[in-house]
Amino acid sequence: DVKVTQSSRYLVKRTGEKVFLECVQDMDHENMFWYRQDPGLGLRLIYFSYDVKMKEKGDIPEGYSVSREKKERFSLILESASTNQTSMYLCASRQGGNTEAFFGQGTRLTVV
Amino acid sequence: GQNIDQPTEMTATEGAIVQINCTYQTSGFNGLFWYQQHAGEAPTFLSYNVLDGLEEKGRFSSFLSRSKGYSYLLLKELQMKDSASYLCAVRAGSGNTPLVFGKGTRLSVIA
User: Fold this and answer.
1) In 10 A of CB B98, how many CB atoms?
2) Which residues does chain B have within 8 Å of residue A105's beta carbon, measured at their own beta carbons?
3) pLDDT computed for residue B92 by the predictor
4) Strands A19-21, A73-78: parallel, antiparallel or unpaired by DSSP?
5) Which residues pair with B55 in a beta bridge?
6) Is residue A57 predicted with pLDDT exceeding 80?
């Protein structure tokens, strides 16, 4: 089975802190994604990557950055956390072509 | 731009059939996916359509009409465990294009 693992299930951080959310997949997938999910807004794409060291902005990249130094790992960075970044963060990966995406279990981040 | 519409909430009775609709307007089209998401959990893949017609998978079926920009997910013999959100997602381009998700439909199955 494909496994996408996010480093934390729950996180509480203070405003202004630098926050790292880690995601690892074990199926050698080319593509990895970070979404946030908020009530009434659905899943919104923050950043994605289709290869090591490659990154592309999604629909809402402001306030975030990403890092993909190894194929299996895709990190989301909040440079200076703010309360409006309180959300559920979901990492996903998929192989190329018309294949489905597999999701991690999510990280519920609260910024206080 | 990309726009994907689904009803926000639906309620259905155990043992019944329910149809969840999804309409989309996207700059291109290269497949439509349905995901199930239980509260507090990750979305899990249900079905994929890229050609017009019906795809059946056990109690779940998904239909696509590309000319109408329309899909539906059909759930038969509803069970309480089917209470979840159902997410419609479209891939608008080829290659590595990410999925664009609708806001999801929360289905409640009642006895």
Assistant:
1) 22
2) 41-42
3) 86
4) antiparallel
5) B62
6) yes
CA-to-CA dists, residue A44 to A37, A60, B13, B73, B92, angstroms: 6, 7, 31, 22, 15
pLDDT digits (tens, 9 = 90+) for B51-64: 999 999 999 999 99
pLDDT band at residue A95 under the 50/70/90 scheme: confident
Look at residue A2 and tell me whether its pLDDT is greater than 70. Answer: no
Contact B45 A96 (CB under 8 A): no
Nearest CB partner across the interface for B95, out of A41, A96, A104: A96
Asked if A101 is an interface residue toward chain B (Cβ–Cβ < 8 A), one would say yes
Contact B45 A41 (CB under 8 A): no
Contact A98 B30 (CB under 8 A): yes
